[in-house]
């Protein structure tokens, strides 16, 4: 009798243990190792790539070929003018191409002084973020916001003038609301959103 | 048999007959099946409206991807001013709640003819207000303008603004009505590479007069000059085909056939339906042409392949609207006659234009008429500006009466967008 009870207890413990192990196995699967990649770290990584490519294109393509060596023009109407796309257009075309491929993150180039008014800050986080990066040189702004019923981790990074081409073009453009940009100054911000 | 019994029998017979008739038509997509359509379709979509599965899933939802399949290349080419990717950005979530511009059918529904506007628009015409309500702050010249007129007054389009954007207007300020030099691409005649003669023909079965007539036409054609023999068109996988169709032509004329299948003349074939016939058209056609089945050789006569005929004569055989019928009285027609039918402006110059091609050929004839037809400002750059100034072109295309008269006379109205651009530019 005792033996039977013991056997039953042992077998139940074994089943229970297996269940716990099984459940913890499921849990481990759901919580796959992240290597500490938080939304912030992911956004910082994405921005590092974006900012580097953007600076390389602006300095080594636009500034060098269109402004210094003058072998090709850069134009807002690059297709009609058979010219190079402007750095901001290059960036936005990339963002639109990404938007066609994934909804895991999105990014935009915004400014308090946009040439196209559609690129002015709209959401509260965008407004606060652009104010923050303009007032706190070299710092980023991180927040969370809800848009269209979805929660997002939103990071705002300063977008400084990295080449004379940036300030010249913005200061000379007829639709630019500000014409006194200087080299190195924050002209706008890159906003990266990751759905939570 | 009393009256009541007779009535019952009649009722049962009529019920059986009508349900049989409708079931047959529905299952076989017969003529009577149109009764199941919930409403009229827009423009040329009537051609494929009975191929329900072209646009609808089995659950009767709309396959958005089909819109893009047929119209996506046009939108890309036009550098679409409002692509879907602009709206999927979360920062535009509030706008999507007002107008879900990430879907074609938000603005373009079908079968709702009672509230369909120009450009197959099925929402109120002042839709620009939803995102651009503060435009007059940025553009004081726009103060007091109705949002209904943004995309209908000749100034802007929702998708294609390639000929209307501000800097383009400025670039072409003060151009004359008619340019001093025309830039219409001429028909290219390639040098003979391998001239074939009647004795070279490798036909399988031809007899008597038919044989000599066909051989004469063929041996004088560009096909014979380029070494294209009978079997190149008539023999498919070793089997002789007496009546080759577009799929034979496609072997060499890939781009042209692609355009044909995308356009009004071939879209039924592309949808797996019988070829389009003038009798099916909703625009005026000549009754005697009703029976013609549209394929490549409807316009390019067999064996002769006369491209001059295909530029005009073939069109007027079927089309019977005012614009077509006024053509021979127009200056456009005169330029075509004066050019010896190689240059000037034929029907095809505007509606099947020669476009620059990046492949090894200089030009490709765009056989998809829809590509530059609606909104008609799409015609400005690919066609009108080859001979006319931008301002004149915009005004002419905004004058419906002038279009109907095949541009005999001058535009009776003026679109102010170019004046506004000029004033802003000079400031």
How would you describe the overall organization of this protein?
- The complex is a heterodimer of chains A (196) and B (427).
- Chain A has 196 residues and is α+β, with helices and mostly antiparallel strands.
- Chain A has one domain.
- Chain A contains 5 helices and 4 strands.
- Chain A has a 4-stranded antiparallel β-sheet, with helices on both faces.
- The longest helix of chain A has 30 residues, at 39-68.
- Chain A is globular.
- Mean pLDDT of chain A is 88; it is low at 1-10 and 12-29.
- By secondary structure, chain B is an all-alpha fold.
- Chain B has 2 domains: 40-151, no CATH class; 198-404, no CATH class.
- Helix content of chain B is 40%, strand content 2%.
- In chain B, the strands form 2 sheets. In chain B, strands 1-2 form a two-stranded antiparallel ribbon.
- In chain B, strand 3 (354-356) and strand 4 form a beta hairpin.
- The longest helix of chain B is centred in the N-terminal third of the chain and has 26 residues, at 3-28.
- The N and C termini of chain B lie far apart (94 Å).
- The mean pLDDT of chain B is 91.
- The interface between A and B is medium-sized, with 25 and 19 residues.
